[in-house]
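Journal club prep — side note

Before the paper discussion, L.F. wants everyone to see what a predicted structure for a comparable chain looks like in token form. Sequence:
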Amino acid sequence: MVLKVGRAALAAPPFLAMDVIAAANARQAALPPGAPGVVHMEVGQPGTGAPAGAIAAARKALEQGGSLGYTEALGLPSLRQRIARHYRDWYGVEVPVSRIAATTGASGAFPLAFLAAFDPGDRVALAAPFYPPYVNILVALGLEPVIMEATAATRFQPTVGMLERLDPLPAGLIAASPCNPAGTMLHPDELSQLARWCEAAGVRMISDEIYHGLNYDSTVATAAACSEHAVVINSFSKYFSMTGWRIGWMVLPEDLLRPAECLAQNFFISPPHISQLAATAAFDCHAELQANVAAYRRSRDYLLGALPGAGFPRLSPAEGAFYLYADITERSNDSLAFCARMLQETGVAATPGVDFDRTRGNRFVRFSYCGAEADMREAAARLAGWA
């Protein structure tokens, strides 16, 4: 008997960064005792753990033995209130608590936002290179991604001009600042222009802001300050270093609040209770978190100086997040094979650009520098010898 497999499952390509993790782990397991280990630069997972205050809050909740059950679908009021205060503290923006929704990470927020804002068949624009699950989730939900090929000239970011050339106009735009994989940012005036254009054109803006706090030389801005119609998505995984806790949030427009809440009730019931308690406490751990950012900055600065001499002279500006997007045109036209060989011959794991750009990514590699500083220096030394 042959049973049916859903089209969405068959159509969804792999997230190659996760495949690289598996390959790197397999190589590590096969190494003899005492051999130099794999240096992980393939995944955007901070090498630091959750801040001490977040861990203490989780421990306290467990020790008190209270109920850690379902919360409201949009999250604990205390967490939502703390997120609203975060917008006042960081951006000087007043966001009503009613418009804030806690989610099961940003990964849980994207399908809620897409389903609440769009209908099957709607076209949603985004700039390439892009975070692969954007496209994979859109396709799985019956939406049509419209890829705009950005270049280093726009710091791999979308522009109003790119949108104006689309015919017909899309129903939505996904923008990310700082972005994955290039680590570049939409500067405040650019973000404002995009948000105003989207509002005037009837295009729903989805602003991915999960790397806020990880900005080095440029000022960060939030779409929540630019448009009440934009959907803002953020997470505790990156700046707050809480990847495995699976907790994030959205700032929703008024017209999407109830639709998103109903979807969340049915999809997830609620975000993890203990993670919400830990996340609330994490907002008071900025000294520890800023020390993490300082370490990322040192690694970024070191790699920007060292990688050109190691055979990677063309790197993205790396204004934020913890990624370097390297153009390897002069070394290879097959980033998948290039990364596999680099892992095998140097023990440095990186993600092939085809994960982020399906037409031009064969000429790019993404390096993540959120691991230990010593590991980043070791990686540069190995790559210099390989070059």
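L.F.'s comment for the group: The CA atoms of residues 110 and 233 lie 8 Å apart. Keep this in mind when we get to the figures.
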